UniProtKB/TrEMBL annotation, chain A:
Residues 113-164 form the RNA polymerase sigma factor 70 region 4 type domain. It holds the Pfam family Sigma70_r2. It comes from the Bacteria. It comes from Hamadaea flava. Belongs to the sigma-70 factor family. ECF subfamily. Keywords: Sigma factor, Transcription, Transcription regulation. Residues 182-281 form the DUF6596 domain. Coiled coil: none annotated. Signal peptide: none annotated. This is RNA polymerase sigma factor.
TrEMBL record, chain B:
This is YciI family protein. Transmembrane segments: none annotated. Belongs to the YciI family. It comes from the Bacteria. Residues 1-114 form the YCII-related domain.
Length: 414, 120
């Protein structure tokens, strides 16, 4: 099933719009989603041979609607009646777009995002459903991205749809007072999607890498719908500024290269410029939130021409701000690194000692890894070596373990 | 995050179980498989044949030497596994507790290594 990249891109872009129209018309998200998937499948089979239709969106809506009506009625009399009604309705999809149509598509996309990120679902299910319904990825692609069998992913998705259905999934906007909380979930799901892709390196894991592109595309779409939402802009900027470093963060064997040792010439200047611009504009105007602060930290890193030019003072104060806005042990861990860069390794190690009591982090390899780096900075090679060894044992990431073991070797240990 | 739920069993313990207990074990597995399929957490599972059906292979100087029986001399042997993809260690432990063999023997919960990693 090879589709030219342009057609595939088109399909992905049209998916939420088509699903929006069909779900709104028939009011049943789960059925509509199935119907649209079949329409997408039909398109990937037919378009490469017959060419992309003149109005691809109308084509998809028609095919999906036909499938919907097939599902809905059982008797042939009703079938004829409905087909008559149906035959009269598509013209509005076939005429040129009205001036306000764009707005409607945007609302549909947002509504779909809110629906897929339904709080009744677990984060992995929200993620899978978003990728399929809004991202237009096939179940096989999503399964590949998460390294699980296709049957597993299919079950996860159909279960998620059932849950949405039983939680009362009419295609309607959630009540206004629920929107901020739902938006928070939407942003978190997009963030998870990005991380899932970013954690992967290269080679056979290309599908996972594609997730970052998908996360950026969807967050960009969300930013267009809600340009004044500072956290949406912040998340988009964070993704762009992080993605900009992709080319430099792994060596030829997929080994991790830490930020300080990356070849900054390989960073994507265009993405950095866009991200920095977003951060600058948002921080000035919108209400501050955790994604914006994280984006600001990424911007400070990305703007340093050399690692030693990094403005650690600014990073430290941003982490302190983040610690107030969204306190969590990982933030404090990063703050310890920044404190060490500004005030020396002892200051960082003192912060880590406070963290050692935090049971959310004890046993986590990141704590040991950061301690190892700071001990190495302080010249305590023996302490650093055993902390690196401990971190290497605890991590479940293969590239991270290779990296940590290489630090042990560099310190002349075994 | 993926976890391997390793069912370690002492074959003699299983032999001492009553018919009803054995039935309960099988029924428990059926129920767990159904649940894992429904939640979408199932990645795979397998039951292993008795240790007596094992061959052990050693290659020495390029020559394979094959002997009957398991490599490790122990009372407990790997009896089977579930591979699950779930949200947290807590959930993996919860699932392990649902494996009926946990009542008679022990289940090990081991995270799988991931092919990616965060920037360090």
């Amino acid at each position: 099933m090879t589709v030219p990249a342009a057609a595939e891109d088109l399909l992905r872009r049209l998916t939420p719009q088509v699903l929006g129209v069909v779900a709104r018309r028939y009011g049943d998200f789960a059925e509509a989603e199935d119907a649209v998937q079949e329409a997408l499948l039909a398109a990937t089979l037919q378009w490469p041979e017959q060419g992309v239709p003149e109005n691809p969106k109308a084509w998809l809506v028609t095919v999906a609607s036909r499938r919907m009506t097939d599902q809905i009625r059982s008797e042939s009399a009703r079938r004829r009646r409905e087909e008559a009604v149906y035959a009269q309705s598509p013209p509005d999809e076939l005429v040129a777009a009205a001036a306000d149509e764009v707005t409607e598509h945007r609302d549909d996309t947002l509504m779909l995002l809110l629906l897929c990120c339904h709080p009744a679902l677990s984060p992995p299910s929200q993620l899978a459903l978003t990728l399929r319904a809004v991202g237009g990825l096939t179940t096989a692609e999503i399964a590949g991205a998460f390294l699980v069998p296709e049957a597993t992913m299919a079950q996860r998705i159909s279960r998620a749809k059932q849950k949405i259905k039983s939680a009362g999934s009419t295609f309607q906007a959630p009540p206004a007072h629920e929107v901020p909380e739902r938006m928070r979930v939407v942003l978190h799901v997009l963030y998870l999607m990005f991380n899932e892709g970013y954690a992967a390196t290269s080679g056979p894991d290309l599908l996972r890498a594609e997730l970052t592109g998908e996360a950026i595309r969807l967050t960009r779409a969300l930013h267009q719908i809600r340009p004044d939402d500072g956290e949406v802009a912040g998340l988009l900027a964070l993704m762009l500024l992080t993605e900009a470093r992709r080319g430099a963060r792994t060596g030829p064997d997929g080994d991790l290269i830490p930020l300080a040792e990356q070849d900054r010439g390989k960073w994507d200047a265009e993405r950095i410029a866009e991200g920095v611009d977003l951060v600058t504009r948002t921080l000035a105007a919108a209400r501050i939130g955790p994604y914006q602060v994280q984006a600001a930290i990424a911007a400070v890193h990305d703007e340093a021409p050399r690692a030693e030019d990094t403005d650690w003072k600014q990073i430290l104060s941003l982490y302190q701000l983040l610690d107030v806005l969204a306190p969590n042990p990982v933030v404090l861990l990063n703050q310890a690194v920044a404190a060490a860069m500004v005030h020396g390794p002892e200051a960082g190690l003192a912060l880590l000692d406070r963290l050692a009591e935090d049971e959310r982090l004890t046993g986590h390899h990141r704590l040991a890894a950061v301690r190892a780096h700071l001990l190495e900075m302080a010249g305590d090679d023996d302490g650093a070596r055993s902390a690196y060894q401990l971190a290497a044992k605890r991590t479940t990431s293969l590239p991270e373990r290779r990296y940590l073991e290489s630090r042990v070797a560099r310190l002349g240990g075994r | 995050m993926k976890y391997l739920l390793i069912i370690t069993m002492n074959p003699t313990v299983f032999e001492t179980l009553s018919e009803a207990d054995r039935e309960a074990v099988f029924a428990g597995h059926d129920a767990l498989i159904k649940e894992l399929n429904e939640t979408g957490e199932m990645v795979g599972f397998a039951a292993l044949a008795d240790p007596s059906a094992t061959k052990t292979v050693r290659v020495r100087d390029g020559v394979p030497a094959v002997t009957d029986g398991p490599y490790v001399e122990a009372k407990e042997f790997l009896a089977g596994y579930y591979m699950v993809d779930c949200e947290s260690t807590e959930r993996a432990v919860e699932l392990a507790a649902k494996i009926p063999d946990a009542t008679f023997n022990a289940i090990e919960v081991r995270p799988l290594m991931e092919p990616g990693g965060l920037e360090m």
